[in-house]
Every structure is written in structure tokens, then in C-alpha cells.
């Protein structure tokens, strides 16, 4: 939830997946990639979509490598390249997870994204010190159970903030 002046990041919710001395990686989880469904993506990749829910949309995960796919998922699933994200969920970027989802052997909860949001070493830390982002604890319910269009206000609500009370202009006290 930034205030960095880049319109690509207005009213976005980013699930941070990696943040260390080398940089950071996150996925935008409230911006769909048009009408692209996960089933259609699987068909493009020659994967039989099988048990994949018809309504599952692909997220536009960010502007970096928009053709690279990621699945953010519940922590019980572990694939070949799964990275644990704070023990709360996992991030997998190999085709195996899509095949497992299609075969109904994948994670219980998941969302798919193309592209990611990335920062170089120290870049995100600098933006955080300039108050470019509002941070909130990770919330699996927000990621997996909240409608895509409701994730931004829900993230604020989780911090006790009503977005209806926000103003885009500064005042004087």
C-alpha cells in the first residue's frame, strides 16, 4: 500500500515473499491480469486443467518479468522450488505446482500471478524509511479468502483504518 508516486502501485496490496540484504520480491495480489484464467494459462502451457476452478483468475503480480509465473499458496504444499514465506505460506515458480493443482494434488489454498515486484539491495528499506509504504502483517485470509477487489480496503481494515476516511490531499494543523 504505497505512496511512492508510481501509478502502477496505486491501491495495490503486495504479499512480500522475500526480503533480505540482496533485495526484495513481492506479488501484487489485488490486480487481475485481464480476464486470463488459470485454466486458460494451463491450456497455453499444454497442461490439462483438470480440477482447476474455472473462476480462478491470474493476478498481475508486478511489472518485473511479466511472463514469469508464480503460485502463492498455503504452507502445507512443498514442490521442487517452493520457498517458505515466513512459515505462513509458500511461493512456487515451477510448472509442477500447476500440474498438481490440475490433478487436485496441489495446495489447499493458492493464487497464481504473472510477473513480480522487485527491489534491489536496500531499495525497499529506503522506501520504507521515506514512508512510501504502509505495512501490515501477513494475512492468509486476505490473500486466499477475500475477493480480489476487496483486498485493498480489507488490508486497511485489518489495521483499523477505514479507507473512506482517507484523503488524497494534505492539510495543515
From TrEMBL:
InterPro entries according to UniProt: AlgH-like
GO CC terms: cytosol
Family: Belongs to the UPF0301 (AlgH) family.
Protein's name according to its UniProt entry: UPF0301 protein GCM10011529_19940
Organism per entry: Sandarakinorhabdus glacialis
Amino acid at each position: 500500500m504505497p505512496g511512492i508516486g508510481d501509478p502502477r502501485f496505486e491501491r495495490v496490496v503486495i504479499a512480500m515473499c522475500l526480503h533480505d540484504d540482496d533485495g526484495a520480491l513481492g506479488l501484487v495480489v489485488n490486480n487481475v491480469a485481464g480476464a486470463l484464467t488459470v485454466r486458460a494459462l494451463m491450456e497455453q502451457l499444454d497442461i490439462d486443467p483438470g480440477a482447476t476452478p474455472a473462476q480462478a483468475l491470474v493476478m498481475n503480480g508486478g511489472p518485473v518479468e511479466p511472463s514469469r509465473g508464480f503460485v502463492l499458496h498455503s504452507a502445507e504444499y512443498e514442490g521442487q522450488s517452493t520457498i517458505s514465506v515466513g512459515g505462513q505460506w509458500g511461493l512456487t515458480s515451477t510448472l509442477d505446482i500447476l500440474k498438481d493443482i490440475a490433478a487436485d494434488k496441489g495446495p489447499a489454498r493458492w493464487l497464481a500471478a504473472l510477473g513480480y515486484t522487485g527491489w534491489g539491495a536496500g531499495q525497499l528499506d529506503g522506501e520504507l524509511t521515506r514512508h512510501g509504504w504502509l505495512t501490515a502483517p501477513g494475512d492468509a485470509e486476505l490473500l486466499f479468502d477475500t475477493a480480489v477487489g476487496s483486498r485493498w480496503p480489507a488490508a486497511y481494515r485489518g489495521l483499523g483504518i477505514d479507507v473512506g476516511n482517507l484523503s488524497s490531499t494534505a492539510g495543515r494543523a
